[in-house]
C-alpha cells in the first residue's frame, strides 16, 4: 500500500507541474524509477510487496527513461519556452 501511495503522489505531482515545469516533472518521474527499483530491497515486515526482481527492474527502467527523456527534451531554453507558450496561450 505504501508503494502505491508513493507512486501516486509522485505521478500526480509530476503531471501537475508538467505544464509549467517539465524538467521538474521529469525529475519526479525519474524518482518513481528509483523508488520502484528499491522496492524489493526495502525491509518490509510482511510479504504483501511481491514485486519481483525483473518486474521491478523493467518498471524502474521505464520510469527512469521517461523522466530522463523529459529532462533532456526540455533542457533547451527555446524548447522550454515553446512548451510553456503552448500550455499558457489563451484560447478564445
Write the layout of secondary structure elements.
Layout: H1 2-17, H2 22-38, H3 53-73, H4 77-88
Helix pairs in contact: 1-2, 2-3
Which structural category do the helix and sheet elements fall into? mainly alpha
Alpha carbon gyration radius:
16 Å
Number of separate strands: 0
Number of helices: 4
Tell me, what's the shape?
elongated
Structure notes:
- There is one protein chain.
- With 92 residues, the protein is mostly helical.
- It is 72% helix and 0% strand.
- It is built from 4 helices and no strands.
- The longest helix has 21 residues, at 53-73.
- The protein has one domain.
- The termini are far apart.
Give the tags:
92 residues
Amino acid at each position: 500500500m505504501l508503494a502505491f501511495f508513493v507512486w501516486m503522489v509522485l505521478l500526480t505531482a509530476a503531471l501537475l507541474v508538467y505544464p509549467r515545469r517539465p524538467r521538474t516533472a521529469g525529475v519526479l518521474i525519474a524518482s518513481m524509477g528509483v523508488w520502484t527499483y528499491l522496492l524489493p530491497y526495502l525491509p518490509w515486515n510482511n510479504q504483501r510487496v511481491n514485486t519481483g526482481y525483473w518486474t521491478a527492474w523493467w518498471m524502474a527502467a521505464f520510469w527512469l527513461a521517461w523522466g530522463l527523456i523529459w529532462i533532456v527534451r526540455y533542457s533547451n531554453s527555446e524548447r522550454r519556452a515553446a512548451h510553456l507558450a503552448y500550455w499558457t496561450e489563451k484560447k478564445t
